[in-house]
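User: I'm curious whether this sequence folds into something compact or stays loose and floppy. Could you predict its structure so I can see for myself?
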Amino acid sequence: MRASIAAARAWTKSIEAQFTSETLGAFVERRCAELGDRPVLNVFDRGETLTYAKLERLTNRMGHALRELGVRKGDRVAVMCPNRVEYPTLWLALAKIGAVHVPVNTRYTPREIAYVAGDSGAKLLMFEPAHAEGSAAALSPLQAPPVALPLDGGPESFVARAAKAPETSCRDETVVPGDLLNIQYTSGTTGFPKGCRLSHEYWMILGFVAEHWDAERPTRLLTAQPFFYMDPQWHLVKTMRLGATLFMAPGLSATRFAGWVKTHRIEWCQFPILMTRQPEAPDDGTTALKQVATFGWDPATCRDFRRRFGALAREGFGMTEIGLGTWMRPECDDMFDSGAVGFDAPFRETTIRDETGAPVPPGGRGELWVRGRGLFDGYWNKPEANADAFRAGGWFRTGDLFESDADGCLWLVGRLKDMIRRSSENIAAREVEAVVREMPEVEDCAAVPVPDPLRGEEVKIFVQRKAGVAAVNLPPEAILAHCRTRLAAFKVPRYYAFVDAFPRTVSNKIEKTKILPPGTDPLEGVWDSAIVRT
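Assistant: Here's the prediction. I'll summarize afterward.
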């Protein structure tokens, strides 16, 4: 075991020397010239495909069209668009001319659109015609609103303008790797999100590391998240580094995901954990999957995935601010069901610190701090948030609770801000949730704190039963009994409630603050385990 860990860590350090710094625009120009007529994008539900050569021509036309609209290096362009071939192409065109991509969630309300457009100082808002009404309502209150332009739908639309633009190179050669490329607004669970400043180098390092994550080089990759989320963007860079084809789905679908993997003979994808909870099919073991990327899977899910699909779930830890912070290399595949998220990824150094900022020894718990080349450049227009997030020496505080062993292997325990303080004990909601999810009748769950006059806070668990599971087959008494055998007494939830479904962010995380409507009594209708029943 130690030999394989040492080999993995040595290999991780060795590949850093292989990285060549360049802008995303220069990278696209180079790869398209090298790969020509090889397919690069397949938006299969829309029947849209692109070769590398056609991608080069289309990004150039879009770049010239943007300049005709007055967009220059450093200008911010907000994009509100579903998954279609023009979206990734537009992102790459913005990279070529040195402009800044501001992704806008298509599910945003006018209030949220106005916040992102106003906070970023966007010069232009590009939107799908279906979002015209919401975009107009959002921009009207702004003192300096961006120019609103439909992506298509008429002679003045952006697609029509780009069709008339030249195909000659539009790349601005003054753009450098450290220049800003994205203001990526994170999907926060309370209040408005913060905009992460992501440079060209951020994306190029993330794509480079993702290329080297796998044991076998895939040729057919799948992305299913909306492109305004960060994952499809690095999936595209990874694909182009591999010289492969990226199949783009319309969006996450638990019932259709496995079918896409089978139909398109996908060899690599980022596999969402909720998709593993769909009913098994006889042909699950016949996919072309070589490996999948996963984040925070429990050991049982990893084992079941390997049994069911015949492929390994390769773990890592990442977030918008740091890209890929840790990874589990193929040399450590014997640890695939350890629950660990791996070791420091290339260009990343980690440390676990306590509340005072002092290092925590192996086996102890503390906050994960990360530093390295190509991290985000801080939050846009948020000096207070930056002061809180960064420490001397370039360390970024992730806000996540970790443990490590003597070999430097890392385990994610939970969010520091997702902790429940019961009497003198800190309880990680993630730990409680992992135990409840072990029950085969449970689809998903969320542990939250509720006020308690005696202990400060008590643990409440919201549970979603799997489809077809009747209440009589998963009563709260059964969950309580299960928790009591797997958790210390102070961690066992006192209160139990059931939901039909959870509100979720675009990245599929449960939005805990939205489970109950504002003003709702958190103890209304709950099952209280402290009440003696006869």
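Summary: The two ends are 52 Å apart (CA to CA). DSSP finds 14 helices and 26 strands in the chain.
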